[in-house]
Amino acid sequence: MIENVKELLKAHEGLKHEVYLDLENSSVVPKEVIDAMMPYYNQRAYGNPTLTHKPGWEAFETIMESTQKTATFLGCKSLEEINFTPGETEANNLALMGTAFSMKDKGKKIVISEVEPINVLHVTELLQKYGFKTAKIPVDKEGFINLEKLGEAIDKETVLVSLSAVNHEIGTVQPIKEAVEIVKDKNAGTIFHTDASDAYGKISFNVKNLGVDLATISSYKILGPRGIGALYVREGINVERILEGQIGTQKLWPGIENTPLIVGFVKASELAFQNFENNVSRMQRLRDRLLDGIFERVSDVRLNGSKGGKRVPDNASVSFLKCEGEALTIELSLTGVYVSSGSACTRRILQPSHVLVALGRNFEEAHGSILMKVTRYHTEEDIDYVIDVIPSAVERIRGITGSTGVE
Amino acid sequence: MSRMPLPYNPKVLELFRNPKNLGKMEDATIVAVAGNPACGDMITFYLKISDQDIIEKASFESYGCAANIATASIVTEMIKGMKLEDAWNITWKSVAEAVGGLPSIKFHCGILAVGALKRAIRAYYRNKGLFPNWLPGELSFEEKQALEEEELARILSKRMRTEE
Predict the structure, then answer these.
(1) Which residue of A69, A133, A135, A404 pairs with A153 in a disulfide if CB–CB is 3.0 to 4.6 A?
(2) ipTM (interface pTM)
(3) pTM of the predicted structure, to 2 decimals
(4) Chain A contacts in chain B segment 46-105 (CB below 8 A)
(5) Which of A227, A251, A273 is the last residue of a domain?
(6) Is A345 a catalytic residue?
(7) Is A205 within 8 Å of A273 (Cβ atoms)?
(8) DSSP class of residue A226?
(9) Of the candidates B86, A1, A344, B31, which has an alpha carbon nearest to the alpha carbon of residue B94?
């Protein structure tokens, strides 16, 4: 297996231009972030923040200051409301399971949407084994949750609602404030969680203004290091721990705090929020250049998600008809353009992305989907290079498809 | 919906980049299809068969992943010049071997390619009204698997339509 990978990598030798657009699945960490993190491995604050010595107190100081900054960015009331976790998967697991555990005597119903990420979807499936029921709210063709159906789904049994603020795959910005009002109106005791991993640092997102009880944020989604995220838990909301061990500064997550990763996460946040307007308009400009270029040069393309203001500025998700997505990701990789696909062929079972299927897209559109996200670090040259290579890559794969699949 | 790494081997990559015998054949004796676009996995074979039941030419088209393209392409290479009776004996394992091995989640690509080939051979004799004694009446493993995948596609599509 490893020999195969070495050969695959060899096939990429000599690439003149490389553009990483698979920000959904991992990030390239900017140098400023790495530079900010490095001293915390061996120069300062390398101690355990709960212990009584200088490196420990330095770590405590660093973590508290990092928490304060994160709380400010999110619009929290107090430091106590931020819990660092090892990532968004862990934060979402904590939010769902931790709330289910603490609320199990009040009711057994959890409400999510059909387009939630796997780390929400699969947790609700796990909770079903322990007597919880899940209701999934449908979305329209652009991925907006059906607010009427949401209202109908909330009853006195409903202990938790979890809806992403921005869809991870198609970038649709959900009406979270309205959703919170609808939910709380039907049942004031229902806990509202939002996975804000794709909203934080990309659209204006403030937990107080939205009225959410729990919110997940993720470091790598804003170009910080992987392995760190956070869960906002509004003061007065009881979430139980889902792991046990040595509890330190993070009361909902045991184990020794990873100070360098926390520092990197906060540095990435600072970079995203300083010149926020500029960053956002730059991403949007690059994203629009990418989409316009693709639609201009390639026929039979569909945009996945919403157009205009209700789309997060970095997301470009499109489907190429008569062009299988996995084959296209490989073809593009060989030209130095790195993207992902919602095709079934990139997964273990033969079902394509549940998000695209929930939009009512046919299977061909789902199998031919390509997900790209831009960052403020991309240049116009990068985007133009991508626009240059996509048409011939799509054309070659369509040439292999030929008349196969034509009904 | 978990994902697995797909470290394709050099042979698969080569056949993906430069597929042999790609494209529609205008003078094909028989055309056979297996799979369904709903599963993101579909192969068409075009065979030109001589009066002596020898495969003179073979070509393919494929809507699918790199493994799907590679296995379809290698099958057309393997069967060229072969008697139909010998082509019938090709198994998905020999196809997987011929492409230098497949990741386990891509076995179905090899199975689908052989399923399409066996369908083509059956269709050829059915059209001629012949039933050679080496041709089993019962469906082969690969044909059954292809049917199963197509059935799954139908169920998925139907479920989607009712949900709409």
Answers:
(1) A135
(2) 0.92
(3) 0.94
(4) 61-66, 68-69, 105
(5) A273
(6) yes
(7) no
(8) S
(9) B86
